[in-house]
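pinned: reference chain
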Amino acid sequence: MLELILCSLITVLPDYLFRRHAQGKHWGDQITFFTMWYELRWGITACLILTVSLITVVFYYHPSTTNAGPYFRTIPLLPEGGGRVEDVFVKNGESVEAGDPLFSLLDTAQVAGVNITESQLDQIASAFTQAEVQLEAAKATLVQAESALAQSENELSKKRELSSRGQQLVSKIEIERLENTVAQRQGGVQAAKANITAVQTQISEVLPAQRKSAQRQLEQAQVALDKTVVYAGVDGQVAQFYLQRGDYVNPILRPAGVLIPSDGPESGRFQIAAGFDQLSAQVIKPGTISEVVCLSKPFAVIPMVVTRVQPVVAAGQLKPSDVLIDAQQRARPGTLTVVMEPLYEGGLSEVMPGSKCIANAYTNNHELLESGDLGLGETLFLHMVDTVGVLHAVILRMQALLLPVQMLVFAGH
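pinned: its structure tokens
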């Protein structure tokens, strides 16, 4: 409407003034509602052509969209395993900080697992004590075996000395018996040493490995026990949280509620995502200046800057399935997703996350015009493009003024 009014001021109005003052025709006489088209045909035709051209230029070089808003992410409150609710520590709508417990599940099985592994550690500690005693006993046995061996070797040495002198006091059978005794006691010494080695191996390798394994099992059991308590991952507010003791919660079928972050990039207070028509893909680039008006903050135009343009159109994504994709099924062409951030700090501080917004993006050819490398026609055209951006900015401000009236009166809200 504003474009039509502006265009009529330089087309229809001059045509009327010419016919009124130059040709002497009067409104209500020669110029009536029935003769308006014939009398003002040149002005009306020029007005329509100029209006269509102006709207095309404005909306192509300064695109606008009503599909914009500060999107935010909700975090589902899910345990890692299903179970019955034992305790609920917060209420619905309550603000929480990162690390605060939210609810816990029945942990009978997990506590039993921890107790079993702790008992295994106690048994291994007792085995260490028992092995130390066995080591002392093995050492004592070695001392006893070495003493008996020394005694047998001493006696055998004396018998052999007497036998070597030619005396018949020691028989050959006696010497053989002593030799067998020495050999037997040497085996006893070796057995005692092997027993000591076995006990030392038990103390230094077997029992530590068993203790380490039991400690890992205890850690695993403790992790399983800790998973029965669900904590808040970020600062935020709990929503749709109506748990009671005895409710069954499942990570796939039945979440406990959602957590709405209160800060950070995922809170929706620092960015606005807008879906522009695909025709604006050649116009909107990172660094493009834009403006938004949001329902939760009426009468305010917030300066923004484009920080990222999604390199693909989401409507064209494919998911593997057992049905071939038919391009005709894509009735809607999809939009160009653009991410914008406030040009000034705190620009979105009073805008509620999830609010409905209207966004305008403006083409800026100032640097190109200042370069002086353009011809006269291109320079005039780019000047005209930058100038009509003011028209779109005026329209956005009119929308900001009329938005509450439109929503409260005409929309019936």
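why pinned: The mean pLDDT is 83. The chain has four domains: 1-61, 63-72+268-314+332-413, 75-106+229-261, 108-225.
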